[in-house]
């Protein structure tokens, strides 16, 4: 086990690269295989669905042809004077009865010859319950049962229409069949007989049975959701409102096909409404069974495995050859780090390895020259950082603020003292962080408000501060402590003669620049003191941060260039306006 671990450690680079490549090859192969199978399956389903749509049209045409022949036969019966006369006459003896049956059968034979298909049955019943049955074997109907059946009530309710219905009851001897019924009546609305055309479910199935197969099912669904015919015999007679809803919604959307989850299985559904029979023709395709019969998934998977195995083997051999020299180079570097830092590497192996060794040796030579310089630079940097940290906060500001808080507590102004302490803590935290970092305008406003709150707590509200900041600037970034020094100057130098006044802080975006303006109505300055040289050389004592106008102006130009910086406009006795121009920066 230890030997195996040492082998892995010795070939760590090779193992990592090989594993990445192997996993990548396998992942890509799996994705392509899955995508190919899925695309092939979807393409076949689309093609199969288009074909089945055409088949559905053919089935519909066959059913419509059947209903058309029924309509045609009904018209002939309705207009046949012989049948009309025979059904209204009374037969007084057996001879009259025989003649009656003879002529009725002769007329019906002629009309029945036009009914398509021949499997359909044609029956006429008189008001005396005499039955004339063209194919008795198809429907062994009893005149008395038929006359008393609710079917007659539906026909009499619509005497001018052919009424279609699915029946599987005592009147059909339990045989499921489609029955088309028509009342035979005179112009006076007197009904002198009834005409019936019947087609058993088994004969009805012949319309579509040749188009079905494993996973390809056809169903005829009534408006009540009952399955009246299907190649799946166990489903005949069952009621499925869900299937009916799918069929109706399919008809509303006028789509080619839909994927549905019904009967605890996924199907492709096609549907067409047949108004002549008032039924829905539904085609349910089991996509898994259909796809399995067409797409050989196992063969595709075996081919993919073979390709992956070959690719992984080739990657193994190539990577092994490439990483041997790199592994040797790694061992040299490892030994050098442990024993002798300035020992050069052997420039052997492949082209890449020799280049790396040569560059590494050159780096070693240069590194020795810069070590001392780097150490000196780091020492100076540490001293500069300590000095900056020490001068960020003026001790007098801390003493005066704490004294003011102490005075508030003695005066029992506890809420104001607590508010001042919170502002002081937030201000100290902000000042102790890296002075070079940038913060959002929103954060800078919080710091300014804390500073203003402390000063107003110490000196009162004689100087009011207003903030006008565009909302779209709150998320923009600016260097820390570029506005506060000017607020500080305004507080302690702008109101020496005037005892009250205001300071306005305006921040907005103008084209590609972030403009910050600090305006006060204080004592102002004479124009001679406002040129750039004066700005740069101005060294007034700052009571908080120790960062003056010069530092702010130079820091902005060092960070962003000569196009940005600080400009001051002032007029004695009217006030001062400070304009700080910064670039628009987002995170």
UniProtKB/TrEMBL annotation:
Residues 320-372 form the HAMP domain. It is a multi-pass membrane protein. GO terms for cellular component: plasma membrane. SUPFAM superfamilies: ATPase domain of HSP90 chaperone/DNA topoisomerase II/histidine kinase. The chain crosses the membrane at residues 12-34, 300-319. Keywords: ATP-binding, Cell membrane, Kinase, Membrane, Nucleotide-binding, Phosphoprotein, Transferase, Transmembrane, Transmembrane helix, Two-component regulatory system. It is found in: Cell membrane. One of its GO terms (molecular function) is ATP binding. InterPro entries: Bact_2-comp_sensor_kinase (IPR050640), HAMP_dom (IPR003660), HATPase_C_sf (IPR036890), HATPase_dom (IPR003594), Sig_transdc_His_kin_internal (IPR010559). This is HAMP domain-containing protein. It comes from Gracilibacillus thailandensis.
């Amino acid at each position: 086990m230890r030997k195996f671990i040492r082998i892995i450690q010795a070939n760590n680079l090779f193992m990592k690269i090989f594993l990445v490549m192997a996993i990548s090859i396998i992942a890509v192969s799996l994705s392509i295989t899955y995508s190919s199978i899925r695309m092939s399956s979807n393409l076949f389903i689309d093609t199969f669905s288009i074909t089945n749509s055409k088949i559905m049209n053919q089935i519909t045409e066959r059913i419509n042809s059947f209903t058309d022949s029924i309509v045609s036969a009904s018209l002939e019966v309705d207009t046949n004077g012989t049948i009309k006369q025979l059904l209204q006459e009374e037969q007084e003896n057996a001879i009259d009865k025989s003649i009656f049956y003879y002529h009725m059968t002769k007329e019906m034979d002629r009309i029945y010859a036009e009914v398509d298909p021949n499997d359909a049955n044609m029956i006429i019943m008189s008001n005396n319950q005499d039955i004339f049955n063209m194919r008795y074997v198809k429907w062994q109907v009893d005149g008395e049962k038929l006359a008393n059946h609710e079917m007659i009530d539906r026909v009499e309710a619509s005497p001018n229409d052919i009424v279609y219905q699915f029946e599987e009851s005592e009147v059909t001897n339990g045989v499921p069949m489609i029955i088309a019924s028509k009342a035979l009546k005179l112009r006076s609305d007197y009904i002198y007989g009834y005409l019936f055309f019947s087609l058993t479910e088994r004969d009805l199935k012949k319309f579509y049975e040749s188009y079905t197969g494993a996973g390809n099912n056809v169903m005829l669904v009534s408006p009540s959701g009952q399955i009246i015919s299907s190649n799946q015999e166990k489903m005949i007679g069952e009621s499925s409102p869900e299937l009916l809803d799918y069929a109706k919604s399919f008809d509303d959307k006028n789509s080619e096909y839909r994927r549905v989850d019904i009967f605890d299985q996924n199907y492709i559904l096609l549907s067409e409404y047949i108004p002549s029979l008032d039924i829905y023709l539904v085609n349910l395709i089991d996509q898994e069974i259909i796809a399995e019969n067409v797409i050989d998934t196992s063969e595709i998977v075996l081919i993919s495995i073979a390709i992956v195995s070959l690719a992984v083997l080739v990657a193994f051999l190539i990577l092994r050859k490439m990483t041997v020299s790199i592994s040797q180079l790694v061992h040299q570097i490892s030994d050098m780090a442990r024993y002798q830092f300035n020992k050069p590497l052997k420039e052997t192996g492949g082209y890449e390895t020799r280049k790396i060794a040569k560059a590494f040796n050159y780096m070693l030579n240069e590194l020795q020259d810069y070590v001392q310089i780097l150490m000196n630079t780091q020492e100076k940097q540490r001293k500069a950082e300590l000095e900056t940290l020490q001068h960020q906060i003026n001790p007098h500001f801390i003493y005066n603020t704490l004294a003011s808080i102490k005075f508030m507590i003695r005066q029992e102004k506890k809420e104001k003292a607590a508010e001042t302490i919170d502002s002081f803590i937030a201000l100290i935290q902000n000042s102790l962080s890296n002075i070079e970092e940038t913060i959002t305008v929103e954060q800078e406003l919080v710091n300014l408000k804390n500073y203003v709150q402390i000063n107003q707590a110490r000196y009162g509200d004689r100087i009011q501060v207003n903030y006008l900041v565009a909302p779209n600037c709150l998320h923009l970034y600016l260097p820390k402590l570029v506005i506060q020094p000017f607020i500080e100057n305004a507080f302690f130098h702008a109101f020496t003669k005037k005892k009250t006044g205001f300071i306005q802080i305006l921040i907005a975006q103008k084209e590609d620049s972030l403009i910050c303006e600090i305006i006060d109505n204080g004592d102002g300055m004479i124009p001679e003191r406002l040129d750039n040289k004066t700005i740069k050389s101005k060294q007034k004592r700052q009571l908080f941060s120790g960062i003056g106008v010069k530092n702010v102006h130079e820091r902005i130009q060092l960070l962003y260039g000569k196009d940005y910086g600080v400009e001051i406009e002032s007029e004695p006795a009217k006030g001062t306006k400070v304009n700080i121009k910064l670039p628009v920066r987002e995170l």
